[in-house]
Amino acid sequence: ATLPADADLSVPHRVALGARRNFDDGTRGGASAWMDFVPDGGDAVHINLIDNDTCTNCHVGGFDGHGGRWTEPGSCQTCHTLQTTDPESGNTVAFGVMLHKLHAGAGLPSVQAGEPYQIIGYRNTVYDFSDVHLPRPVTDCNACHAGDAPDAWQQAEFNACTSCHDRTAFALPVPEGEGWALHSAGPQGPNSCGNCHGPVGGPISVTSAHQPPEAALDLVGLNITLLEATNVAPGQNPTVYLTVTNDAGAAIDPASLDFLEIVLAGPTSGYDWSVSMRNVHQAVVVDGDRLRVDLNVAVPADATGSIAIGAAGYRYLPYGAGRADSIAREYGGNPVIYAALGGGDPVMPQAKVTQDACNACHGELKLHGTFRRDVEYCVTCHNDTATDASVRPEGAGDPASIDFGPMVHRIHAGARLNEPAVIYGFGGSEHNYGEVHYPGDLSACSACHQSGADVPSTKGCTGCHDSSAAKAHAALETAPDGTEACGVCHSAGREAGVDKFHTW
After folding, report:
1. Residue 289: burial class (beta carbons within 10 Å; 0-12, 13-18, 19+)
2. Which 3-state string (H, E, C) describes 102-151?
3. Which residue from 200, 76, 96, 79 is spatially nearest to 145, judged by alpha carbons?
4. CB within 10 Å: which end of the chain, N or C, has fewer?
């Protein structure tokens, strides 16, 4: 192939290569590479708006397209240019526009108006992205735009803006159909977004529109710190000492909080019970240079080993606002401390996953009212015996386990399960995870788990392997006293070891 006769030889050009190899066992692997050059000489300076590392934060194990031979964005962009269109659907497949739209998925105004977002691929395969839910806010632009120019997304550009805002009309007449509306400032030229929507400053700047509401407030910070717990013995009501401060270290009156809870859970060798006291902020008293609360819940009389003491709290924003008038909640952290029943050094729980691993894809987990965010705290309530029985409506079937490990396995496996995870939450609300499509390789356990956390167990394995045959197999390999024989075949290094089928 030769360059077109009218090609400008003084500007950067790109060449990309994609390769694929088939192996004897029926598998295949692919890779791509690219480089920029200036035909008549000179430096080809290219600024990446995204890079491979940001993609693989969620697409763990890598991603590929078109048969596996295109494996990173620099190569993909070579063909996915503004001139390209899917002839069947009429949708552009320009890289930036297409990626914005497919990641926005179910949240696109066009999809919410009833028009599916589809791309028709090889052999008329229909790829429907209308049920895609990004695992973090779609306005978190830095999730992807963290390449050479991490702030480049702040420049308003027509094709980028309209990829998500795809039911806003910028010219008259306004198209007919559900959801269409004229731009609030009236008709605008196709490249005039930046005239009003500057990078920063003002309520209609790009950054203001793509940040959480609390970011616009002048916050002083909220930090809840647990110091120690006394009277920690079976049957006793512990006393917990803590501080509540702002980011400058100044004390905050705990009565100004809108919610504070303390949870006791144990044993740390494998949680199977938890109790909690809510509205703790109303019971806190000043004790010298710290705060004290005498809990109205007791350590179970039959508790053994070591226990965890955790806290979670918030206050409404703006400060002093009531629930109905608030725009967000300021999070005070999820501190957890540990104590041995009867004294001595506590046994620390095994850390099977890290917060960084969760946040690589989710940005920041904000669950149960946005103020329970830390895995170390989550596992205290989501323990081995916990279920949704207390909130599951009558007639909705047997209670579902909310034990942290199996529950998270099932949520992420989502659409691939034989029996999708259906869990009931606050107020009897139904949460059906049957449409979850994990963006990475489900067998890449290291995406969430720390290295070495690969001991096979019925509880861990059947979270994903939920067929009747798999459950029966696990039951047959479990002794009447509960002892499991999983490790005989599935320990690392064995013929059917987890290391042979999962990536660590």
Report:
1. exposed
2. HHHHHHCHHHHCCCCCEEECHHHCEEECCCCCCCCCCCCHHHCCCCCCCC
3. 96
4. N
73: preceding bond cis by omega (within 30 degrees): no
Q: Rounded distance, CA 102 to CA 119, Å?
A: 9
242 is written with which tokens?
């803590």
Backbone angles phi, psi at 259, to 5 degrees: -165, 140
Contact 312, 276 (CB under 8 A): no
Q: What is the CA radius of gyration of the chain?
A: 27
Report the amino acid identity of residue 442. L
Q: pLDDT tens digit string along 462-486?
A: 999 999 999 999 999 999 999 999 9
For 425-464, the pLDDT digits (tens) are 999 999 999 989 999 889 888 889 876 556 788 988 999 9
Q: Compute the distance between CA of residue 108 and CA of residue 100 in angstroms, rounded to an integer.
A: 10
Torsion-angle region of 237 (φ positive above 0: left; ψ -120 to 50: alpha; else: beta): beta
Taking alpha carbons only, the member of 383, 374, 352 closest to residue 224 is: 374
β strands within 217-349, DSSP E: 223-230, 239-245, 259-266, 273-277, 285-287, 290-294, 306-317, 328-331, 336-340
pTM value is 0.90
Amino acid at 269: S
Give dist(CA 222, CA 315) in Å, integer.
Answer: 9
CA count, 13 A, side-chain hemisphere, 442: 17
Q: Is 361 left (phi over 0), alpha (psi -120 to 50) or beta?
A: alpha
| Distance between CA atoms of residues 33 and 16, nearest Å | 6
Cis amide prior to 267 (ω within 30 degrees): yes
